[in-house]
Design brief:
single chain; 1115 residues; alpha+beta; Immunoglobulin-like; five-stranded mixed beta sheet; 41 helices; 47% helix; flat; AP5B1_C; ARM-type_fold; AP5B1
Length: 1115
C-alpha cells in the first residue's frame, strides 16, 4: 500500500488533485488516510486567507457533494464552529465576501439535512445551526445584508421541510419578523412563515402562533418532536391560524412567480384543512390569469382544479384568456403551446360538469370556431389547435345532444362536426400539393385520425359502439375526401395507405380501416385513369388484395385492363417501364393468391395470367406469370397458400411487404422456421481426426489463487518495455521522495555480474530467438490447429425432423438427406483467444449401412480398401479449428452449429465439444529467417543448449529480459525442472519417439542410440554426437536396479548413477508452447529404462507432462 501524503496543509494544487480523484472515484484511499483527517484539512483551508476565494467555493461544493464520505457525524460541531467564525468575520472584499458567507450557509445546511435523513442523531448540531441562522435573520430591514438574510431564511425553510415543526416554538417571532421586513428579502420571510404554518396544520399541533414569551435564542428543539405520538390529532388553534392566513394573503404582490407557486402550493392545503371559503383565494389571486407569466397562469389553474365550485361562472373567462394567449404572436411559442395544452384539459373538465343542461350557452359552431388555427401560426401550434378542435367538437357534440334530449327548443345550438372539420383543415390546405414527406401532410392526416377516433377511446369500457362510429357523418365525409384526394394527387396514395395501416393495426379501430378499403374498392377502382401513373395506386391495391372481406373481382378486372394497356403501349422507350410495372402487378396477384381462396380467383386470375403469358413483351414477366398459372391450375388452394407463404418466409420478407409505406418501412422479418434441437449431438457427430494420447478432463488455472498485487511470472511474463522508475511522486509539495513498500520488495538490487563468453553467447542466442516470437497483445499470435470431422446419420436425422422413412435400401441410397450452408461457431472458457467460425457449403448424410452393427457384420467379408475410404469421404467434412493460445493449457472447445435442411428448416444446436490436450500445444521452435536451411539443425541445437541453461536452477542468465517481435513487449525466463523415470525398453521408446516426437528432436548422442535411430530414417536434420555419454563402459556384472541420488551437485552435473543398465544415448527434445514458453526433454535412454530430465519456463505445464509421458511410452 502506498504511503500517506504529508501531514502539512494541502496546497492549491493538492486540492485540485483531490477533487478530481473524488469525482472520478480513483485514488481516494490515500486521501482518506491523511493525518489529521481530511475533514480537518477542509475546514482549515476554508478559513485560510492565503487560498484564493474561487478555490474556497470549489471546496464548499466539494463539501456539499461528498460530506457523507469525508465527515463523521461526530465532527459536525467543528463545521458549525467554522460557520460561526465566517459569519462573525467582518466583510472582506477579498477573502470573506457576503457571497462566500451565503454559500457556506447553504453547504452546511445541505450537509446537516443529508445526515439527518440518514438517521443520525444530530439534534445538537441542528439546534446550533438553527441558532446561527435565526441570529442572522433577526435583523429585519437591515439593508446591507438583506440578501444574506434571505439565504438564511431559505436554509431555515429547508431544515423545516426536512424536520417538520422544527420552528413551531418560534413561529410567533417569525410572524413578527415578516411584519417588520420591508426589503426584497420579505419573500423569503413570508415563505418561511408559510412553511411553518403549513407544517403545524399538517401535523395538527396545538401551538399558539401569537405567543412570543419563549425567547427565540437560544434555540431548543420543540418538545413535541421528541414525543412518540408526534403528529396525532391534538387539535388546532383555528382562530389564530385563520388570522395568520389572512395576513399571508395580503402579501402576494411581493412574491415573484416562482415564489407564488410555492406559496399557493402550501396555502391550498391550509385552506382545505381549516375549512375556509375558497372565495378568499379567488378574490386575491384570480386576477393573475391576466398576467403574461405562464407560472402565474398555472397557479390560477391549479386553484381552479382544486376549488372548481368556487370558480363557477368564470370558466368562460379562463378559456377566453388561454385562447387569447395562444393567439398573441408576441408571446413565446412555448407559452402559446402550453396554453393550448391547458385548454385541452380545461375543456374536458368544463364539459364534464354538464353545465349546458342547466343553462343555455352560445351556439356550438361559433364556440368551436374560436379554436380555428390561423394561417400564419407555426406548424406545432396548428397541430395542437387542430387537436383541440377535434376534442372540443366531440365534447360539445355530446353536451349538445344531452341538452337537446332534455329541451324542446330545437337543434339550432347543435355543433356541425363536419363543418368544423372542413374549416379547420383550411389552415393546412397546402398539404394537397406538397411532397408526401412534408410536415403539413403529417399534420393533416394526424387531424383525420383525431377527428375519426375522438369519439371512441381505446378503453374496453367505452360505451360507443362500432356501428354508431361507422355511420357517423365525419367518417362518411372522410371516405369521400380520401377517394377524391387519391384521384387528384396520386403522390398521396402511400400516405393514405399508411393511414389505413394505422387503423387496421389497432384492435379497437380496425373496422375503420376495413370499411375504408371497401369504400376504395367500390369508388376508387372504377374512377382511376388507365395510364402509367396507375402504379402510384399500387400501395392501396396491395391493402385491398390482402383484405379477405373484399371480393377480388374488381381489382382483377383493373389489373387485366392495366396489362392490356402495357401491351398496347409497349415500345422501344418503355422496355424498363413495362418490366417494372408488370412485375409489380404480378406481385399483387401473388398477394391475392396468398390471402384468398382459389375459387374466388380462378376464372379472372387465370385469364389475366394466360394473357400475360401470351402477349406481355417482357420475358421475365411471362415466365413468372406462367409459373403462377401452373401453380393455380395444379396445386390445391391451401397447399398453394402454404407454398407461397413459405417462399416469402424463407426469403426473410413478408409476402406483401408494403415498401411504399409512408410512416414506416417494414424491414425483413426473421424466419419463423428456426428450430433448436437439444439432442442434436445424437445424430450430428463432430470428432477429432487424431485422438489424444491423454484425454485431459481437468485444467490447472492459478489466476484466481494469486494473492499479491503482482501476477506470477508465467502469467505476466510479457509486459511493455518501460524505462526504470527511480521514484514515485505523491504530491508536488513533497520535499523528500517516498518509496512504497511494494517497490522495495519488487526492486531488490542485485550485485553486478561478470559474464564470460559462454554466457554472452547464450544471451545473444536467446535475444535473437525471442525477437522472432510475436507479441500477441499487438499482433497476431502463433496458432495451433486441430483437425476434426463432421458427419451425420441419415436415419436419426430424418426421425429428428419428423420424416417417416420407409424406403428400401436402394431408394435410401439414392435419396440421402443433406444439409446446406452449415456454420460452426466455436467458443471456449480456456484462454484460446477468438476462435474463427467454419463454413461448410454442403454435406451428405451417412447411409444406413454405415451403422456400427452393419459395419461389424461385414468386416470379416469385405476388405476396407481405397474405394471404401473414398466413399466414406463423401459423407464427412474436414474441419480445422485454429486456436491462438494465451497460455498453454488443455481445455474444451464448445461447438454450436447452424445449418439448413432440405425442407427449408434452419437447424441450430450444441454439438459434442472438442477436447484440447497439452500435445495440441506442441509446436516447433521458431527459426529466424536469416538462418540457412543447412544451418538450422545446429541453430536448434544451440537454442536447446541456451534454453536448458536459462531454465536451470543455477541459471547464469540472471534477471535478463528479452524483447519480443514488434519492439513493445519484453519477456523474462523463470525456469523450473523435474525428472521422470520410464520403465520401458529402448526399442519401444525409440519407436514411440519417432512416431510422436520426431519433429521436435534436435540432437541425438551416443553411438548405440545413433545407430538405432539412423536405421529408422525418421529422425533427420538433427545434430549427431558420436561420443558415448558414459565415461567408462558398464559391464554386465554391475547390473542392478536403477538408483536416483537427489543431490543438487550431482544432478546439475548429470551424475546420477545407473549401475545396472547400459546407457545407449540421449535424445534432446525442444518443444515450443505458445505464446512464448518452452518444454525441454533430455532423455537418457537405457536398454530397460529411460530417465527423462524436464526443464520448462512454464511450470504449470509440468502438471500435464507426467500423464503425457506415461501415455506416450507406457501404454
Amino acid at each position: 500500500m502506498t504511503a500517506p501524503p504529508p501531514s502539512k496543509p494541502l496546497t492549491h494544487h493538492d486540492w485540485e488533485t483531490l477533487i478530481e480523484n473524488f469525482q472520478s472515484a480513483t485514488g481516494i484511499e490515500k486521501w482518506n488516510s491523511l493525518d489529521p483527517p481530511l475533514s480537518d484539512h477542509l475546514l482549515t483551508s476554508l478559513l485560510r486567507k492565503d487560498l484564493p476565494l474561487q478555490l474556497k467555493f470549489h471546496l464548499l461544493i466539494f463539501l456539499d457533494e461528498f460530506s457523507i464520505s469525508i465527515f463523521p457525524h461526530k465532527n459536525l460541531n467543528r463545521l458549525i464552529d467554522s460557520l460561526k467564525t465566517v459569519i462573525q468575520s467582518p466583510p472582506d472584499p477579498v477573502h470573506i465576501t457576503p457571497l462566500f458567507k451565503e454559500q457556506f450557509m447553504i453547504s452546511v445546511t445541505s450537509v446537516v439535512v443529508c445526515f439527518s435523513e440518514d438517521g443520525n442523531d444530530i439534534q445538537t448540531v441542528t439546534e446550533s445551526l438553527v441558532e446561527v441562522l435565526l441570529t442572522i435573520i433577526n435583523r429585519p430591514n437591515f439593508r446591507s445584508d438583506r440578501h444574506t438574510r434571505a439565504i438564511a431564511c431559505e436554509c431555515l425553510r429547508e431544515l423545516e421541510r426536512s424536520r417538520p415543526c422544527l420552528l413551531s416554538d418560534v413561529v410567533g417571532h417569525l410572524w413578527s419578523l415578516c411584519q417588520n421586513e420591508r426589503t426584497h428579502a420579505s419573500q423569503s420571510y413570508i415563505l418561511l412563515f408559510t412553511m411553518v404554518i403549513h407544517n403545524i396544520v399538517d401535523k395538527k399541533l396545538s401551538v399558539s402562533i401569537l405567543n412570543t414569551s419563549l425567547p427565540m435564542l437560544p434555540f431548543n428543539t420543540p418538545g413535541c418532536m421528541n414525543q412518540e405520538d408526534f403528529g396525532s390529532d391534538s387539535g388546532l388553534n383555528t382562530k389564530e391560524l385563520r388570522r395568520a392566513l389572512a395576513f399571508l394573503l395580503e402579501w402576494p404582490q411581493v412574491l415573484t412567480p416562482c415564489g407564488m407557486m410555492e406559496f399557493v402550493s402550501m396555502v391550498i392545503p391550509v385552506v382545505v384543512a381549516l375549512e375556509l371559503q375558497p372565495s378568499m383565494l379567488r378574490v386575491q389571486l384570480f386576477g393573475m390569469i391576466h398576467s403574461y407569466d405562464p407560472l402565474l397562469c398555472h397557479v390560477v389553474l391549479a386553484m381552479f382544479m382544486r376549488f372548481i365550485d368556487a370558480f363557477d361562472g368564470q370558466e368562460g373567462e379562463v378559456s377566453s384568456r388561454l385562447l387569447l394567449i395562444s393567439r398573441e404572436a408576441h408571446h413565446y411559442l412555448v407559452f402559446r403551446l402550453l396554453a393550448i395544452h391547458w385548454l385541452l384539459g380545461f375543456n374536458q373538465l368544463v364539459f364534464s360538469k354538464q353545465s349546458r343542461i342547466e343553462k343555455n350557452i352560445e351556439n356550438g359552431n361559433e364556440a368551436c370556431s374560436t379554436f380555428y388555427p390561423s394561417l400564419f401560426d407555426p406548424l406545432a401550434l396548428k397541430a395542437l389547435k387542430l387537436d383541440l378542435l377535434a376534442s372540443s367538437s366531440v365534447l360539445r357534440l355530446k353536451s349538445d345532444s344531452d341538452y337537446n334530449s332534455s329541451s324542446s327548443d330545437g337543434d339550432d345550438g347543435l355543433v356541425d362536426t363536419v363543418k368544423v372539420f372542413e374549416q379547420g383543415l383550411l389552415a393546412v390546405s397546402s398539404f394537397k400539393w406538397l411532397p408526401p414527406g412534408s410536415t403539413e401532410i403529417a399534420i393533416a392526416f394526424r387531424t383525420f385520425h383525431k377527428f375519426l377516433i375522438a369519439g371512441s377511446s381505446h378503453s374496453d369500457s367505452d360505451p360507443s359502439t362500432t356501428r354508431n362510429l361507422l355511420d357517423s357523418m365525419i367518417f362518411r365525409t372522410l371516405q369521400v375526401m380520401l377517394v377524391n384526394m387519391m384521384l387528384e394527387s396520386r403522390r398521396l396514395v402511400p400516405v393514405v395507405a399508411a393511414f389505413v395501416d394505422r387503423l387496421v393495426s389497432c384492435k379497437k379501430h380496425s373496422w375503420f380501416g376495413e370499411r375504408l378499403l371497401q369504400k376504395f374498392d367500390a369508388h376508387l377502382l372504377p374512377k382511376v385513369k388507365m395510364d402509367y401513373k396507375l402504379v402510384y395506386c399500387f400501395p392501396i391495391f396491395d391493402r385491398i388484395a390482402e383484405n379477405q372481406t373484399i371480393p377480388p373481382c374488381g381489382l382483377l378486372e383493373l389489373l387485366t385492363n392495366f396489362m392490356i394497356f402495357l401491351v398496347e403501349k409497349h415500345g422501344p422507350d418503355t422496355i424498363m417501364k413495362s418490366w417494372s410495372q408488370g412485375s409489380r402487378a404480378l406481385g399483387i396477384c401473388r398477394t391475392m393468391l396468398v390471402h384468398h381462396h382459389s375459387s374466388r380467383l380462378f376464372l379472372r386470375l387465370s385469364r389475366l395470367l394466360a394473357f400475360t403469358c401470351l402477349y406481355f413483351p417482357d420475358l421475365e414477366v411471362r415466365d413468372n406469370s406462367r409459373t403462377y398459372l401452373r401453380m393455380l391450375v395444379c396445386i390445391p388452394g391451401k397447399k398453394l397458400r402454404d407454398i407461397l407463404s413459405l417462399g416469402g418466409t424463407m426469403l426473410g420478407i413478408s409476402p406483401s411487404s408494403h415498401q411504399t409505406s409512408f410512416f414506416n418501412v417494414q424491414s425483413p422479418r426473421p424466419s419463423q422456421r428456426f428450430k433448436t434441437f437439444i439432442n442434436l449431438a445424437s445424430c450430428i457427430h463432430f470428432e477429432r481426426l487424431t485422438p489424444l494420447l491423454v484425454k485431459q478432463f481437468w485444467s490447472l488455472s492459478l489466476s484466481s489463487l494469486v494473492v499479491s498485487n503482482s501476477k506470477p511470472a508465467y502469467l505476466g511474463g510479457i509486459r511493455d518495455f518501460e524505462a526504470p522508475i527511480e521514484e514515485k511522486e505523491f504530491s508536488d509539495s513533497s520535499n523528500s521522495p517516498v518509496i512504497p513498500e511494494t517497490g522495495r520488495t519488487n526492486q531488490s538490487h542485485e550485485p553486478l555480474r561478470v559474464m564470460d563468453s559462454n554466457i554472452a553467447e547464450i544471451l545473444n542466442t536467446l535475444r535473437k530467438y525471442f525477437s522472432c516470437i510475436p507479441d500477441f497483445r499487438y499482433m497476431a499470435g502463433l496458432k495451433v490447429s486441430i483437425s476434426c470431422s463432421l458427419r451425420f446419420e441419415s436415419n436419426t436425422f430424418n426421425r429428428m425432423l419428423g420424416i417417416n422413412n420407409t424406403a428400401t435400401f436402394q431408394e435410401e441410397i439414392d435419396a440421402l438427406p443433406a444439409i446446406y450452408a452449415t456454420v460452426l461457431h466455436f467458443s471456449s472458457s480456456a484462454p484460446y483467444g477468438s476462435i474463427p467460425s467454419y463454413h461448410i457449403p454442403f454435406l451428405l448424410g451417412e447411409p444406413h449401412s454405415k451403422d456400427h452393427a452393419s459395419q461389424n457384420a461385414s468386416l470379416s467379408i469385405v476388405p476396407l480398401g481405397k474405394e471404401d475410404s473414398g466413399e466414406e469421404e463423401k459423407h464427412r467434412a474436414t474441419v480445422v479449428i485454429y486456436l491462438e493460445p494465451r497460455e498453454p493449457t488443455p481445455g474444451i472447445v464448445d461447438v454450436h452449429i447452424e445449418t439448413n435442411a432440405e425442407n427449408g428448416q434452419i437447424i441450430q444446436g450444441q454439438l459434442q465439444g472438442i477436447t484440447v490436450g497439452i500435445e495440441d500445444m506442441f509446436l516447433k521452435a521458431i527459426v529466424p529467417s536469416d538462418i540457412q536451411e543447412d544451418a538450422r539443425p545446429q541453430y536448434n541445437f544451440d537454442l536447446f543448449t541456451a534454453l536448458w541453461e536459462a531454465c536451470g536452477s543455477s541459471s547464469s542468465t540472471g534477471r535478463e529480459t528479452f524483447q519480443l517481435k514488434g519492439g513493445k513487449g519484453i519477456a523474462a525466463i523463470s525456469g523450473t525442472q523435474s525428472v521422470k523415470l520410464l520403465d520401458v525398453p529402448a526399442n519401444s521408446l525409440i519407436q514411440a519417439t519417432e512416431r510422436h516426437l520426431a519433429r521436435f528432436v534436435v540432437g541425438v548422442s551416443g553411438e548405440p542410440l545413433i545407430d538405432a535411430v539412423w536405421e529408422g530414417g525418421i529422425i533427420q536434420n538433427v545434430i549427431w554426437e558420436d561420443a558415448s555419454p558414459d565415461a567408462t563402459p558398464v559391464t554386465n556384472s554391475d547390473m542392478g536396479p536403477l538408483r536416483l541420488t537427489y543431490n543438487n551437485e550431482e544432478y546439475e552435473k548429470g551424475g546420477i548413477i545407473n549401475s545396472r543398465q547400459k546407457n545407449l544415448g540421449i535424445f534432446l527434445v525442444l518443444i515450443f508452447l505458445p505464446p512464448r514458453f518452452h518444454l525441454l526433454f533430455q532423455m537418457e535412454v537405457g536398454d530397460v529404462s529411460t530417465l527423462v530430465r524436464i526443464r520448462t519456463d512454464h511450470w504449470p505445464s509440468l502438471a500435464y507432462i507426467d500423464d503425457y509421458l506415461e501415455a506416450l511410452y507406457l501404454s
